[in-house]
């Protein structure tokens, strides 16, 4: 009799344990089905349909350009340009279109036609050539360095003279400072990289 009672308890316990397992499997299957429906439903959502993204792009505000020139109370625009070791200080005001460099005219100071065209380029790009007076004081460097410094100084002064010229001058790369410099001489070399003549004997 003692042996029969544990067998009955074991037999009665096994079906009770099997029924919750079936319930658990059912719940797990339902959970997986729910997860499948949610994952499959995510790409099908059409909320917004990309319209807010377009409005956000339209509402993007461009930052204001940094103006490096100055405008004094008399209406004279000033700009400083540098190239290599040359520094040019430029002043622009409304006038008859005269261009003076260190007290001389453009043709007298710059003998090369290419340099003269480069100096006139920012004025022609903004359609102010012949409408403003340009006064330039430039020091240091050579002809090429001084020409680049004058171009940058004129461009910065024109930008201060009228803010609407920024896009035109920026597109023409007149506001870009040319950072190329002469490489310094190194010890044991004749120049920056050129070495002395090698002697075998």
Automatic annotation (TrEMBL):
GO molecular function: RNA binding; structural constituent of ribosome
UniProt cross-references to InterPro entries, sorted A to Z: Ribosomal_Su5_D2-typ_SF, Ribosomal_uS9, Ribosomal_uS9_bac/plastid, Ribosomal_uS9_CS, Ribsml_uS5_D2-typ_fold_subgr
GO CC term (a single one): cytoplasm
Family annotation (Pfam families): Ribosomal_S9 (PF00380)
Listed SUPFAM superfamilies: Ribosomal protein S5 domain 2-like (SSF54211)
Keyword entries, A-Z: Ribonucleoprotein, Ribosomal protein
Gene3D superfamilies named in the record: 3.30.230.10
Transmembrane segments: none
Family: Belongs to the universal ribosomal protein uS9 family.
Name recorded for this polypeptide: Small ribosomal subunit protein uS9
Record organism: Gimesia algae
Gene symbol of the encoding locus: rpsI
């Amino acid at each position: 009799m003692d042996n029969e009672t544990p067998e009955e308890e074991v037999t009665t316990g096994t079906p009770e344990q099997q029924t919750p397992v079936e319930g658990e499997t059912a719940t797990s299957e339902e959970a997986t089905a729910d997860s499948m429906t949610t994952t499959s439903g995510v790409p099908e959502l059409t909320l917004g349909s990309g319209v807010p993204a377009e409005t956000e792009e339209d509402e993007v505000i461009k930052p204001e350009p940094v103006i490096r020139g100055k405008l004094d109370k008399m209406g004279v625009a000033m700009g400083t340009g540098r190239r290599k070791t040359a520094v040019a200080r430029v002043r622009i005001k409304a006038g008859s279109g005269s261009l003076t460099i260190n007290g001389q005219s453009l043709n007298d100071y710059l003998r090369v036609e290419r340099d003269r065209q480069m100096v006139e380029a920012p004025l022609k790009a903004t359609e102010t050539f012949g409408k403003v007076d340009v006064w330039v004081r430039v020091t240091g460097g050579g002809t090429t360095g001084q020409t680049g410094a004058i171009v940058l100084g004129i461009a910065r002064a024109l930008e201060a003279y009228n803010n609407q010229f920024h896009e035109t001058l920026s597109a023409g790369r007149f506001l870009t400072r040319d950072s190329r410099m002469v490489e310094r001489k190194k010890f044991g070399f004749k120049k920056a990289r050129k070495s002395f003549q090698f002697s075998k004997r």
